[in-house]
């Protein structure tokens, strides 16, 4: 199986019961205090999960991949066979689609873990959107970072 067919299995035939996840990761500074946020919706568009975590001092790209890994682990654990990921990280999306190589050793480890989890799903797709189309996930990231900043003052 080629890398493109592995990561774009839903392109040929959409899956009616696929869950959809808006994911985002962010760092205040690069590296800096980092977090990810994920909003998962069912096929009817209803929010079924919100995932977020503070990651300590990390890079923005590490945070983006951490959000991807969180939703992939969620989908596998909850036995959702089909997942559509929406992200505003053009780098991560293009790496997952095989359009860009992963050169950073730290990201390569996360990328490899993500690929392994994708293989456990029947259908997976990932799409890049502009930040304005990813507000819910961005809001979760900022909530986590704001709560950590306020707590440390």
Explained architecture:
The protein has 153 residues and is an alpha/beta fold. The protein has one domain: Nucleotidyltransferase, domain 5, CATH 3.30.420. 40% of the residues lie in helices and 28% in strands. It is built from 5 helices and 5 strands. It has a 5-stranded mixed beta sheet with strand order 3-2-1-4-5, with helices on both faces. Strand 1 (19-27) and strand 2 form a beta hairpin. The longest helix is centred in the middle third of the chain and has 18 residues, at 60-77. It is globular, with a radius of gyration of 15 Å. The N and C termini lie far apart (51 Å). Residues 1-6 have low confidence and may be disordered.
Distance between the termini: 51 Å
Number of helices: 5
Stretches where pLDDT is under 50 for at least 5 consecutive residues are: 1-6
Helix content: 25-40%
Structural class comes to alpha/beta
Q: In total, how many domains does the architecture comprise? A: 1
């Amino acid at each position: 199986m080629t890398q493109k067919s592995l990561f774009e299995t839903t392109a040929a035939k959409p899956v009616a019961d696929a869950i959809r996840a808006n994911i985002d990761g962010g760092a205040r500074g690069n590296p800096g205090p980092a977090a990810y946020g994920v909003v998962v919706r069912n096929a009817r568009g209803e929010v079924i999960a919100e995932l977020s975590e503070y990651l300590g001092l990390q890079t923005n790209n590490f945070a983006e991949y951490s959000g991807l890994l969180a939703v992939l682990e969620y989908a596998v654990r909850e036995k959702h066979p089909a997942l559509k990921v929406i992200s505003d990280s053009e780098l991560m999306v293009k790496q997952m689609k095989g359009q860009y190589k992963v050169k950073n050793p730290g990201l390569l480890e996360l990328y490899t873990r993500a690929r392994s989890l994708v293989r456990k799903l029947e259908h997976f797709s990932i799409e890049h959107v502009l930040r304005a189309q990813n507000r819910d996930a961005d809001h979760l990231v900022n909530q986590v970072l704001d709560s950590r900043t306020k707590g440390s003052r």
